[in-house]
Amino acid sequence: MKGPASTATTSALDAARESLAAVDLSWLQPEAERHSWTLADDTLRFLTGVVAHLRPARVVEFGSGLSTRVLAAAAAASTKPGASATVVALENDPLFARRTTAALAADGALGRARVELTHLVVRRWYGRNVPVYDLPKTVGEAPAPQLVLVDGPPLPLGGRAGSLLQAVHLAEAGSLVLLDDADRPSEQAALAMAQKVFGSCIEISVLDGFAKGLAAVVVHRAVGGSALPPTFPGGSP
Fold first, then answer.
1. Measured between alpha carbons, how far is 189 from 203 in angstroms, rounded to an integer?
2. Helix or strand run (H / E) with residue 72
3. 214-219 and 120-125: which strand pairing?
4. Which of 62, 103, 140, 174 could potentially form a cystine with 163 if both were Cys, beta carbons 3.0 to 4.6 Å apart?
5. What are phi and psi of 125, to 5 degrees?
6. Are 65 and 96 in contact (CB under 8 A)?
């Protein structure tokens, strides 16, 4: 059942879709930095609109890259005077962590965004072995994020089923979790697993018209806390 917070989040989603064409990403240069594994431009524009309308105080990203830069820039443009939005990207690959940190520094965004290098670990939840991020205290013990982007880990390292569960578990009522590449079978399976685990606590929508697919998970009721337990109620270790 929707509460006021999740209703406002749904409205922010709709507003972000309507403003998609107006977002300018020409500052993201050089064009050669775009690769097959980065978020598509339509998703990057959508992220800008979501931050503008949702105005999250805290953003967590699973993975890092161009999206981290876009989130940081959007947070800088959308935060109320005197307030500060924090963007934290969790990255398991040292090379990508260094690259994204250097790019944030070049953008002048390190005061607002940072990359946390962390390990991937495997946990057995609901009869499946899933990779999850070993959350640093700066994330696990911090206030809940209002926006979470799930764009890691990559399929060769096990995919995103575990990090999607982590993302919802970190969230509070009204938080928005976005899952990239939602058209792929692996991401569809991750969404199905999240729906089975969290039930009516969340509402999942696969948004149409995005080049690589994008799913939005609106959290109606908070389901967890700082760190994901070994198993959820009803699950099997």
1. 16
2. helix 66-78
3. unpaired
4. 62
5. -125, 130
6. yes
Q: How far is CA 72 from CA 17, 134, 172, in A?
A: 20, 23, 21
Say which residues have a Cβ less than 8 Å from residue 93's Cβ, sequence separation at least 6.
none
User: Tens digits of per-residue pLDDT, 77-106?
Assistant: 876 555 566 899 999 999 999 999 999 999
CA 34 to chain centre: 19
Could you give the CA distance from residue 226 to residue 15 in angstroms, rounded to a whole number? 30
Closest Cα partner for 237 from 133, 161, 127, 163? 127
Residue 50's H or E segment, with its range, is helix 41-54
Task: Report d(CA 77, CA 55) in Å as an integer.
Answer: 10
pTM comes to 0.90
Sign of the Cα torsion 148, 150, 151, 152 reads positive
Report the range out of 8-12, 110-114, 233-237 with the highest average pLDDT.
Answer: 8-12
The span from the CA of 85 to the CA of 77, in Å, is 10
Residues 6+ apart with CB under 8 A from 137: none
Map tokens 């931050």 to a residue.
51
Between the CA of residue 20 and those of 14, 17, 24, 209, what are the distances in Å?
Answer: 10, 5, 9, 11
Tell me how far apart the terminal alpha carbons of the chain are, to the nearest angstrom: 29
Residue 136 has which token pair?
A: 């640093």
Supply the DSSP string of 164-191, one letter for each residue.
Answer: HHHHHHH--TT-EEEEE-TTSHHHHHHH
Residue 31 has pLDDT above 60, yes or no: no
